[in-house]
Amino acid sequence: MPQRRHFLHCQQQQPLSQQQQQQQQQHHHHQQQQQHHQQQQQQQQQQQQQQQQQQQQQQQQQQQQQQRGGSAPPPDIPAAVGFEVFGRRQKWVAAVGLCPGGPQGGGAPRRAAAGGEGVEGAAGGQGGGREWSGPMDHRRQTQCQ
To answer: Low complexity compositional bias: what residue ranges (predicted)?
Structure first.
Protein backbone atom coordinates (compact mmCIF):
# COMPACT_ATOMS: atom_id res chain seq x y z
CA MET A 1 0.00 0.00 0.00
CA PRO A 2 2.63 2.64 0.80
CA GLN A 3 4.33 2.15 -2.55
CA ARG A 4 1.02 2.60 -4.40
CA ARG A 5 0.32 5.78 -2.47
CA HIS A 6 3.84 6.98 -3.28
CA PHE A 7 3.31 6.28 -6.97
CA LEU A 8 0.02 8.19 -7.00
CA HIS A 9 1.76 11.06 -5.24
CA CYS A 10 4.34 11.13 -8.03
CA GLN A 11 1.60 11.20 -10.62
CA GLN A 12 -0.05 14.15 -8.92
CA GLN A 13 3.18 16.09 -9.11
CA GLN A 14 3.55 15.22 -12.78
CA PRO A 15 0.98 17.58 -14.40
CA LEU A 16 3.05 20.28 -16.08
CA SER A 17 3.14 23.73 -14.54
CA GLN A 18 2.43 26.79 -16.67
CA GLN A 19 6.13 27.45 -17.23
CA GLN A 20 6.68 23.94 -18.52
CA GLN A 21 3.66 24.19 -20.79
CA GLN A 22 5.11 27.34 -22.34
CA GLN A 23 8.38 25.52 -22.87
CA GLN A 24 6.48 22.64 -24.40
CA GLN A 25 4.93 24.91 -27.00
CA GLN A 26 8.39 26.17 -27.99
CA HIS A 27 10.21 22.81 -27.83
CA HIS A 28 7.40 20.32 -28.17
CA HIS A 29 9.30 17.25 -29.29
CA HIS A 30 12.18 17.64 -26.87
CA GLN A 31 9.89 18.13 -23.85
CA GLN A 32 8.00 14.94 -24.64
CA GLN A 33 11.19 12.92 -24.61
CA GLN A 34 12.14 14.30 -21.21
CA GLN A 35 8.73 13.49 -19.80
CA HIS A 36 8.94 9.91 -21.03
CA HIS A 37 12.32 9.53 -19.35
CA GLN A 38 10.90 10.79 -16.06
CA GLN A 39 8.13 8.20 -16.18
CA GLN A 40 10.66 5.42 -16.63
CA GLN A 41 12.60 6.61 -13.60
CA GLN A 42 9.45 6.58 -11.49
CA GLN A 43 8.64 3.02 -12.49
CA GLN A 44 12.13 1.90 -11.56
CA GLN A 45 11.77 3.48 -8.14
CA GLN A 46 8.50 1.66 -7.61
CA GLN A 47 10.06 -1.69 -8.46
CA GLN A 48 12.90 -1.07 -6.02
CA GLN A 49 10.41 -0.39 -3.24
CA GLN A 50 8.57 -3.62 -3.95
CA GLN A 51 11.80 -5.58 -3.79
CA GLN A 52 12.67 -4.04 -0.44
CA GLN A 53 9.31 -5.04 0.98
CA GLN A 54 9.71 -8.61 -0.22
CA GLN A 55 13.09 -8.80 1.47
CA GLN A 56 11.57 -7.62 4.73
CA GLN A 57 8.91 -10.33 4.58
CA GLN A 58 11.54 -13.01 4.02
CA GLN A 59 13.51 -11.79 7.01
CA GLN A 60 10.43 -11.97 9.20
CA GLN A 61 9.75 -15.56 8.16
CA GLN A 62 13.32 -16.55 8.97
CA GLN A 63 13.05 -15.00 12.42
CA GLN A 64 9.89 -16.96 13.12
CA GLN A 65 11.64 -20.22 12.25
CA GLN A 66 14.51 -19.39 14.59
CA GLN A 67 12.15 -18.59 17.46
CA ARG A 68 10.37 -21.91 17.09
CA GLY A 69 13.68 -23.71 17.31
CA GLY A 70 13.59 -24.96 13.73
CA SER A 71 11.63 -28.09 14.69
CA ALA A 72 8.92 -27.66 12.06
CA PRO A 73 8.91 -25.02 9.32
CA PRO A 74 5.74 -22.91 9.18
CA PRO A 75 3.28 -23.77 6.39
CA ASP A 76 4.07 -22.00 3.16
CA ILE A 77 1.05 -19.68 3.23
CA PRO A 78 1.50 -15.92 2.86
CA ALA A 79 0.07 -13.84 5.67
CA ALA A 80 -2.09 -11.87 3.25
CA VAL A 81 -4.30 -14.92 2.59
CA GLY A 82 -5.35 -15.08 6.23
CA PHE A 83 -6.20 -11.41 6.25
CA GLU A 84 -8.26 -11.78 3.08
CA VAL A 85 -10.31 -14.63 4.52
CA PHE A 86 -10.83 -12.84 7.82
CA GLY A 87 -11.82 -9.62 6.07
CA ARG A 88 -14.26 -11.43 3.81
CA ARG A 89 -15.89 -13.14 6.78
CA GLN A 90 -16.18 -9.84 8.61
CA LYS A 91 -17.79 -8.21 5.59
CA TRP A 92 -20.27 -11.08 5.29
CA VAL A 93 -21.22 -10.83 8.96
CA ALA A 94 -21.72 -7.08 8.64
CA ALA A 95 -23.79 -7.50 5.48
CA VAL A 96 -26.12 -10.10 7.00
CA GLY A 97 -26.45 -7.99 10.15
CA LEU A 98 -25.30 -10.55 12.73
CA CYS A 99 -23.16 -9.63 15.75
CA PRO A 100 -22.34 -6.04 14.84
CA GLY A 101 -21.24 -5.40 18.43
CA GLY A 102 -18.94 -8.38 18.78
CA PRO A 103 -19.59 -11.43 20.97
CA GLN A 104 -20.79 -9.45 24.01
CA GLY A 105 -23.94 -7.64 22.91
CA GLY A 106 -24.81 -9.18 19.56
CA GLY A 107 -27.93 -10.93 20.84
CA ALA A 108 -30.55 -8.44 19.73
CA PRO A 109 -29.67 -8.40 16.00
CA ARG A 110 -29.51 -12.20 15.94
CA ARG A 111 -32.93 -12.45 17.55
CA ALA A 112 -34.33 -10.00 15.04
CA ALA A 113 -32.76 -11.89 12.13
CA ALA A 114 -34.34 -15.11 13.39
CA GLY A 115 -37.76 -13.47 13.31
CA GLY A 116 -38.14 -12.88 17.04
CA GLU A 117 -40.39 -10.27 18.66
CA GLY A 118 -38.80 -6.83 18.97
CA VAL A 119 -38.95 -6.23 22.74
CA GLU A 120 -37.91 -9.77 23.64
CA GLY A 121 -35.07 -9.53 21.16
CA ALA A 122 -33.71 -6.46 22.94
CA ALA A 123 -33.93 -8.23 26.30
CA GLY A 124 -32.07 -11.20 24.87
CA GLY A 125 -29.33 -8.90 23.67
CA GLN A 126 -28.84 -7.43 27.13
CA GLY A 127 -28.66 -10.87 28.68
CA GLY A 128 -25.97 -11.94 26.27
CA GLY A 129 -28.38 -13.94 24.12
CA ARG A 130 -28.25 -17.13 26.20
CA GLU A 131 -31.97 -17.44 26.94
CA TRP A 132 -33.26 -18.04 23.42
CA SER A 133 -30.40 -19.98 21.80
CA GLY A 134 -32.32 -22.22 19.41
CA PRO A 135 -30.79 -24.51 16.78
CA MET A 136 -30.84 -21.83 14.08
CA ASP A 137 -29.44 -19.16 16.40
CA HIS A 138 -26.76 -21.51 17.64
CA ARG A 139 -25.56 -22.19 14.12
CA ARG A 140 -25.34 -18.46 13.45
CA GLN A 141 -23.47 -17.85 16.69
CA THR A 142 -20.73 -20.23 15.64
CA GLN A 143 -20.29 -18.29 12.38
CA CYS A 144 -20.04 -14.98 14.22
CA GLN A 145 -17.28 -16.02 16.60
So the answer is: 11-25, 32-67
